[in-house]
């Protein structure tokens, strides 16, 4: 494979086709259920199986979802829409054609922005169109035969097609991450790439730096994780450059990605548009989308990450980093907003959600919306630690796990029961300090000779002598004062 120096001699040109499976209860043109994980071929109807005489009927919810995503990605919404037949034969496509959109995608001319160095780079979106999914071919359960599961056939998809504006694996990772975040915030797709509800095809070519003519394009199909999108681009771009360096041509083809060894392998020669023989779908009426409809959909849309980041950095004074982490998932963002309704400690709440709460939820594999402690109780915990009544570390390590088990209890009551409240009686702490210093005169001498690291030792000894929790900062201050002045 090519070296880093060789890579610098070439430009990558990347376009992405992202398929988002819409979270509707039924399919796009049939009443079959769409739930993931059902037994094979149990969610099919005569329409899905293309029995003679059956006709498709458009699921109106998919139009609403398409308009929502179009608005979220700065697209123009088309008023007049037609469906087309995309003709090809494959075993998991019962009709022998796929109902899609060709000349009239429902959304077009949009964009998303990704970070490129210290600036934002606009990635143009050519189109977002509606189509039905095909079934699933299963090749690894029998050495002689392939099995077909048609449960997925007819499931509604939005295909988001970018312009070839991406120029690195990192930019592609950011772009897909943003799309995934948007469909999750909108509630139109769960974004689960591992289950196939969000899939990505990468179109990639390379060209010598400064050359205007694009290189031969190769498509890598059905990448099922953000990490694999990045890995596939890195491998495939290296493969292209190596071939060019050896004077060999790059074949226009469709390839697949082997996640086990991080390589791609050929599937078939790349089809061209005329191979599909598109023509208007005769069994579906044209779809008209009015400005009133678009306005109604816009008014129902939830707030999106960009708007929430602006609120968190503006009204609440958080850093851009904190705001970005808190809005990474819709569940965390909403939980943060619910919590700060009960307290004005905006930064402290952010610290708890980004730190101990996130760590706990990661350990149990759950999202913020299933955190057992209510937003009100978390706000009370934040105020308890902010006041100094319980130290942050003690609250995170000892109090929070008990609150999870007893979420109805006020955190101060639990802290008192567990003996976690900080003792702030300066005279009582000073007595313990004097006792420790008297017990370790040799250590005191070492400290005075410059071994200042012993302060932590003295703090530990004072803490062990007390039957109550002590304020570490108060112990530190009294010890330092006593040692430095004596």
Characterize the structure shown.
With 486 residues, the protein is an alpha+beta fold. The protein folds into three domains: 4-292, no CATH class; 303-420, no CATH class; 423-485, Arc Repressor Mutant, subunit A, CATH 1.10.10. The protein contains 16 helices and 18 strands. It has helices spanning 4-7, 60-72, 169-186, 226-245, 291-300, 305-314, 320-326, 330-339, 346-364, 375-386, 392-405, 411-418, 426-439, 441-448, 454-465, 472-485, and strands spanning 10-21, 76-77, 80-81, 84-87, 97-100, 107-116, 119-132, 136-138, 147-149, 156-162, 198-208, 218-223, 253-258, 263-269, 279-280, 287-288, 422-423, 469-470. Strands 2-6-7-10-1-11-12-13-14 form a nine-stranded mixed sheet. Strand 13 (253-258) and strand 14 form a beta hairpin. Helix 6 crosses helix 7. The chain is elongated. The model has no long low-confidence stretch (mean pLDDT 90).
List the helices and strands and how they pair.
Blueprint: H1 4-7, E1 10-21, H2 60-72, E2 76-77, E3 80-81, E4 84-87, E5 97-100, E6 107-116, E7 119-132, E8 136-138, E9 147-149, E10 156-162, H3 169-186, E11 198-208, E12 218-223, H4 226-245, E13 253-258, E14 263-269, E15 279-280, E16 287-288, H5 291-300, H6 305-314, H7 320-326, H8 330-339, H9 346-364, H10 375-386, H11 392-405, H12 411-418, E17 422-423, H13 426-439, H14 441-448, H15 454-465, E18 469-470, H16 472-485
Strand order of the largest sheet: 2-6-7-10-1-11-12-13-14
pLDDT under 50 segments (min length 5)?
Answer: none
Q: How large is the count of helical segments?
A: 16
**Average residue pLDDT:** 90
Q: Determine the fraction of residues in helical runs and give it as a percent range.
A: 25-40%
Q: Strand count, sense and closure of the main sheet?
A: 9 strands, mixed
Q: In percent terms, what proportion of residues is strand?
A: 15-25%
How does the overall form come out from the CA principal axes? elongated
């Amino acid at each position: 494979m090519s070296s880093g120096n060789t890579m610098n001699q070439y430009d990558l040109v990347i376009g992405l086709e992202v398929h988002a499976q819409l979270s509707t209860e039924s399919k796009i043109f049939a009443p079959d259920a769409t739930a993931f994980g059902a037994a094979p071929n149990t969610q099919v109807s005569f329409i899905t199986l293309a029995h003679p005489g059956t006709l498709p009927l458009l699921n109106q919810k998919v139009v609403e979802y398409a308009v929502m995503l179009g608005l979220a990605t700065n697209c123009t919404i088309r008023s007049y829409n037609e469906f087309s037949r995309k003709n090809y034969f494959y075993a998991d496509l019962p009709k022998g054609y796929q109902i899609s959109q060709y000349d009239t995608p429902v959304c077009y001319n949009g964009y998303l922005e990704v970070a490129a160095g210290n600036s934002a780079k606009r990635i143009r979106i050519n189109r977002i169109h509606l189509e039905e999914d095909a079934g699933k071919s299963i090749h690894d359960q029998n050495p002689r035969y392939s099995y077909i599961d048609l449960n997925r056939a007819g499931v509604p998809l939005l295909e988001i097609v970018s312009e070839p504006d991406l120029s690195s694996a990192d930019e592609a990772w950011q772009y897909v991450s943003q799309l995934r975040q948007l469909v999750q915030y909108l509630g139109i797709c769960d974004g689960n790439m591992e289950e196939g509800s969000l899939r990505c095809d990468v179109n990639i070519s390379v060209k010598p730096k400064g050359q205007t003519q694009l290189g031969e394009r190769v498509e890598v199909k059905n990448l099922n994780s953000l990490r694999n999108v990045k890995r596939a681009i890195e491998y495939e771009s290296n493969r292209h450059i190596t071939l060019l360096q050896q004077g060999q041509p790059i074949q226009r083809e469709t390839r697949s990605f082997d996640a086990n060894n991080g390589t791609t392998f050929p599937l078939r020669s790349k089809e061209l548009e005329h191979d599909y023989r598109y023509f208007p779908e005769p069994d579906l009426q044209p779809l008209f989308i009015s400005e009133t409809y678009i306005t109604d959909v816009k008014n129902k849309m939830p707030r999106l990450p960009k708007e929430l980041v602006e609120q968190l950095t503006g009204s609440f004074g958080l850093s851009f980093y904190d705001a970005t982490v808190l809005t990474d998932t819709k569940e965390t963002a909403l939980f943060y907003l619910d919590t700060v309704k009960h307290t004005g400690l905006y930064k402290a709440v952010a610290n708890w959600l980004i730190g101990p709460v996130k760590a706990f939820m990661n350990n149990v594999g759950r999202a913020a919306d299933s955190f057992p402690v209510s937003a009100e109780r978390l706000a009370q915990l934040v105020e308890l630690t902010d006041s100094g009544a319980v130290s942050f570390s003690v609250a995170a390590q000892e109090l929070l796990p008990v609150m999870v088990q007893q979420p109805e209890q006020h955190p101060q009551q639990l802290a008192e029961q567990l003996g976690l409240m900080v003792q702030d009686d300066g005279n009582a702490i000073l007595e313990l300090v004097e006792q420790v210093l008297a017990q370790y005169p040799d250590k005191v001498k070492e400290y005075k000779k410059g071994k200042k690291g012993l302060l932590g030792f003295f703090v530990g000894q004072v803490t062990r002598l007390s039957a109550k929790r002590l304020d570490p900062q108060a112990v530190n201050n009294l010890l330092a004062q006593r040692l430095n002045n004596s």
